[in-house]
Design goal:
Elements (H helix, E strand, L loop, with lengths): L14 H10 L18 E9 L9 E9 L7 E4 L11 H9 L3 E5 L19 H13 L6 E3 L2 E2 L1 E6 L1 H10 L5 E7 L5 H5 L27 H9 L5 H4 L23 H13 L4 H9 L13 E6 L7 H13 L4 E6 L10 H16 L9 E9 L5 E8 L11 E5 L6 E5 L15 H4 L3 H6 L8 E5 L7 E5 L2 E9 L6 E9 L5 E2 L6 E4 L10 E6 L3 E5 L4 E7 L12 E7 L3 E5 L3 E2 L13 H23 L9 E10 L3 E11 L4 E5 L6 H8 L7 E6 L2 E2 L10 E5 L10 H12 L8 H8 L14 H13 L5 E5 L7 H16 L3 E5 L3 H7 L2 E6 L2 E7 H5 L4 E6 L2 H9 L5 E6 L2 E5 L5 H10 L4 E6 L3 H9 L5
Parallel strand pairs: 3-4, 3-7, 7-8, 8-9, 9-10, 10-11, 29-34, 29-35, 32-33, 33-34
Antiparallel strand pairs: 1-2, 2-4, 5-6, 11-12, 12-26, 13-25, 14-24, 15-23, 16-22, 17-21, 17-24, 18-19, 18-20, 18-23, 27-28, 27-30, 30-31, 35-36, 37-39, 37-40, 38-39
Helix pairs in contact: 17-18, 18-19
């Protein structure tokens, strides 16, 4: 079994946004078939189910459904609910796999999705939840479904995110549900969209993940906007629906509601425009939240929540677990290394979930999960993905008995003043919703996508930890805050960073705790506030430091627009949750191997010693310690037989400006991505100053890169943008070499102007300066002259030459052959993924096959050369005439010119890189 998250096709004008939402809100717990549907014994019944009108409504709803029947019946049933933005087709192959495992599987398109009619009510009790109960009724009436009693099928319900909420709401209102598996879903929808971590509930001492459940939260505007966008109606989305929704309604909301019900649309409009919720909206969202029914759930529940999830964090699973457990339900909790922001559950977890369903519905096998399990991410594997180990605790702390152990760490730092800027702009960056886990697999990437801004953050740092600290849950801390001047609305964002000995900061899970402060006294008296930080699982290694950052802005949230200033300090240490656990036991018959254990251990020890020695020799080549770049046999192949890079080899020395040339699709960008550690080669090696490059390799800190464009904050000056970027790396200020980078970039006094006033050329030069921060030994630039006019290109040329003149090395990938010819000292030409020519610019250019003649009568010379048999492509360029001799001796061509009365001052090879390039790769390449 494989859990996969899918959604429907993009809709109309929302194609781009819908694709993002497909990842984040269209997630749904589904099972992926590994077999061939053509040979499967599973039968599928397609159709529509008519739903009676809800109380007080004359509208009838038609739901499109698919019923998957296994080879043998009667069998237990599973109801699969899709994620927001999806439909029944999102789970087709997954339902088939469950059916092949012996379950009757019912999938369907919820109201407002796919070809189902009706409006989206966000799992309303009298709408979507009632629809699910009707489907259970229909399953109970079938002879191929196992019954526990008249009208009572043996059935489990599962789904993720939106579908996970449906699972909980159905189980809390329909006593026929026998088991449920909600994945990455929420407990309280209001708190999911407007969290407030400004106070810690009474459960804080017992639970590992106390929630951000205080009233008056901060609107999670980015996620909320995605949700709303997927509910908009369009011609494309309504085209195949049984009853297309009218563009206009008989309400004051007009067409802004899209496919949402009027009540939901009014609530969204209120939150989006005010950032707050009225009592009416709070009451509505309460009825749509699993928290309204968790006290009634008494059946076995497997709660699977993601550790990479800035939409619905670990605190929501924590609340669901405590509430269901208090009601008498048998609850097991799994935190896995994924979520709305991260990767999908791995194959091992997916298979265990199937085993859990068999155990609960068929009483076969054994329970594959303990009371509480969580994943711990380690280093990066050779494939470029994090290594993960799963550990198991005896119980989920605070659910039945006991409490979470918390370790306290002193944080150093004086009282600091932070500023909330007018309009809340520019805003700090804590990550990119839906992409955080995918982009932040390495410390370099993680630091790139989290950035606090100067003047807007206060930081407090612990001494280095003396042993690994495995944080599992939500840390807590007490802030002391006072207003400087008018108090303002009082919103802060609190984060816990992992700071390594090199000064690089990583924000685990891109997790942020928004705090809506209580009213602050106008006289500047301080107020103390307890904060529950966002839940994480993170091993803080020996020598690392814990750093609390308190910021005034975050682009993921709706921040106040009125300017304000605050004094911030800590009123105590940070308490970090620790849940002792052991690795999940192996399924191998270990006892049978006990007799040879000692021998294997000895062999393993010898192998480890040998491997360490080999790895040391392999990872660092002492003969190349002073060589900027050596690529040998580099290959990158993709599934489907596509090979982007095929056995690429070349070398770059100090002081060189090397131009990497090739037509589109030659493999240039793929090569640069492998060089920067963003993707892993299929074969071959890349060495930078002798060290083998891999994702997260320390030697990557010696590379500065600029790929096509750089995002700058328009309201900051050029120098402020550079300082902000450098601060995000966590490295000391004195290592930035800001003045040197600016001098090389040649921006002059313009560095003190706001970037929004810059021309394209100035932005490009600022981007180059950003890549030069820290004066990296190897500068890698992909198409740096894009969008520049000739004077700007000339200035760019000088920038690169000056940088190489410092003894460093520049690698430039470009389509502008003439520019490379004037800038680079060396050239590598790539075609079809491998090197077809390499050498100095003069060496490559002189291989173009053309000759040049400096003459006194260019037009007469051209006519004379045209008459020479074998000569072609005669071209006049000022006082020069160029021609391809095609084997004709140069002396014969000169003799023909003299005979025609032309005086020849110089004759020789035409050294033009463009000619050589076209000859090497062919005229038709693009």
């Amino acid at each position: 079994m494989k859990i996969r998250w899918q959604v429907t096709r993009s809709r109309g004008r929302l194609v781009a946004l819908g694709a993002v939402v497909a990842v984040l809100l269209g997630a749904t717990a589904v099972w992926v078939s590994h077999g061939d549907p053509a040979t499967s014994a599973v039968r599928v019944e397609e159709g529509f189910v008519e739903v009676p009108a809800a109380p007080g409504s004359a509208d009838r709803v038609s739901l499109e459904t698919s019923l998957f029947l296994p080879e043998r019946t009667p069998a237990p049933a599973v109801l699969l609910a899709h994620g927001f933005g999806g439909d029944k087709h999102s789970v087709d192959t997954d339902a088939r796999e469950l059916a092949e495992a012996g379950f009757v599987v019912q999938s369907y398109s919820a109201r407002g999705f796919g070809r189902s009619s009706g409006r989206i009510g966000l799992n309303g009790p009298d709408a979507e939840v009632a629809d699910a109960r009707l489907l259970v009724d229909r399953l109970a009436a079938r002879s191929d479904v196992v019954l526990d009693g008249p009208g009572d099928p043996r059935i489990a319900v599962s789904g993720a995110s939106y579908g996970g909420s449906l699972s909980l709401l159905l189980a809390g209102t329909d006593p026929r549900i026998d088991a449920l598996v909600p994945v990455i879903t929420y407990n309280d929808l209001a708190q999911g969209l407007l969290p407030n971590a400004a106070s810690v509930q009474d459960v804080a001492d017992g639970t590992p993940a106390p929630g951000a459940f205080a009233p008056g939260g901060v609107f999670k505007s980015s996620w909320g906007g995605f949700l709303y966008s997927m509910g908009l109606d369009s011609e494309a989305s309504a085209r195949d629906r049984v009853e297309p929704i009218a563009a206009q309604r008989d309400t004051d909301l007009g067409s802004v509601c899209g496919r949402f019900t009027d009540d939901v649309c009014r609530a969204w409009t209120e939150v989006a425009t005010t950032g707050t919720m009225s009592e009416r909206t709070l009451r509505l969202l309460a009825t749509l939240s699993p928290s309204s029914v968790t006290a009634s759930i008494k059946v076995p529940t497997l709660l699977v929540q993601g550790e990479q999830d800035t939409l619905f964090g670990l605190d929501h699973a924590d609340a669901n677990a405590r509430q269901i457990s208090a009601a008498g339900g048998d609850v097991q909790v799994v935190w896995f290394a994924g979520g709305h922001d991260g990767a999908y559950p791995d194959a091992k977890l997916r298979g265990r979930i199937v085993d859990w369903l068999r155990f609960r519905l068929s009483a076969t096998g054994k329970n594959p999960f303990g009371a509480f399990e969580y994943d711990v991410q380690g280093g990066i594997t050779p494939e470029g993905t994090p290594s993960v180990r799963t550990v198991r605790a005896d119980s989920y702390p605070g659910m039945h008995h006991g409490s979470t152990r918390r370790e306290r760490f002193r944080l150093d730092g004086d009282e600091q003043v932070v500023i909330a800027p007018p309009g809340g702009l520019p805003a700090a960056i804590s990550g990119m919703p839906a992409l955080n886990g995918r982009l932040g697999q390495t410390p370099w990437m993680a630091s790139l996508f989290s950035m606090d801004l100067p003047g807007q953050q206060a930081t407090f740092t612990s001494p280095p930890v003396d042993a690994q600290l495995l944080a599992a849950g939500a840390a807590t801390v007490r802030l002391r805050v006072s207003a400087v001047g008018p108090p303002g609305e009082g919103v802060l964002f609190v984060k816990l960073y992992d700071k390594d000995p090199n000064g690089t900061r990583t924000l685990p899970g891109n997790a942020v705790a928004p705090v809506h402060l209580p009213p602050l006294p106008a006289d500047g008296s301080p107020v103390e506030v307890d904060v529950a930080l966002a839940g994480i699982v993170r091993p803080f290694e020996h020598g690392h430091e814990l750093q609390i950052s308190v910021a005034t802005t975050d682009q993921t949230y709706r921040t106040p627009t009125a300017p304000a200033s605050y004094r911030v300090s800590l009123a105590g240490p940070v308490d970090v949750p620790v849940v002792p656990a052991v690795p999940v036991e192996s399924s191998l018959p270990v006892a049978q191997f006990a007799g040879i254990g000692a021998v294997l251990a000895a062999v393993a020890l010898l192998a480890v010693v040998a491997a360490v020695r080999r790895r040391h020799r392999r990872d660092v080549d002492p003969e190349l310690l002073d060589t900027p770049l050596v690529i040998e046999g580099l290959t990158k192949a993709y599934p489907g037989g596509v090979t982007a890079v095929d056995g690429l080899s070349f070398r770059v020395e100090r002081g060189q400006v090397l131009g990497l040339l090739g037509p589109n699709g030659a493999g240039k960008t793929t090569t640069l991505r492998m060089l920067m550690g963003l993707i892993t080669p299929t074969g071959g090696t890349i060495r930078v100053f002798g060290s083998l490059v891999s994702p997260g390799a320390p030697v990557l800190s010696r590379i500065g890169s600029f790929v096509e464009s750089a995002g700058f904050l328009p309201h900051l000056s050029g120098v402020e943008n550079l300082r902000t970027y450098w601060a995000a790396t966590g490295r000391p200020d004195d290592e930035a070499h800001l003045d040197e980078a600016l001098e090389i970039a040649g921006l002059g006094d313009a560095v003190h102007r706001r970037v929004k006033t810059y021309s394209q050329g100035m932005r490009q030069r600022l981007a180059i300066a950003q890549a030069m921060l820290g004066l990296p030994d190897l500068l890698v630039l992909d198409e740096p002259a894009n969008g520049l006019d000739p004077p700007q290109i000339h200035a760019m040329r000088d920038v690169l030459r000056r940088y190489a003149a410092t003894g460093r090395t520049v690698l430039v990938s470009s389509h502008l052959l003439a520019e490379v010819e004037q800038t680079a000292t060396h050239v590598v030409v790539v075609h079809h993924g491998h090197v077809i020519a390499a050498g100095t610019v003069d060496e490559i250019a002189s291989a173009g096959g053309a000759s040049s003649f400096t003459v006194d009568q260019p037009r007469l010379a051209a006519l004379a050369l045209d008459t020479v048999p074998g000569v072609s492509d005669v071209d006049v360029d000022g006082d020069e005439v160029h021609a391809v001799l095609n084997g004709v001796p140069c002396g014969d061509a000169v003799a023909a010119l003299v005979a025609a009365g032309v005086s020849v001052e110089r004759a020789g090879p035409r050294r033009r890189l463009e000619d050589a390039f076209l000859q090497l790769v062919g005229e038709g390449s693009s």
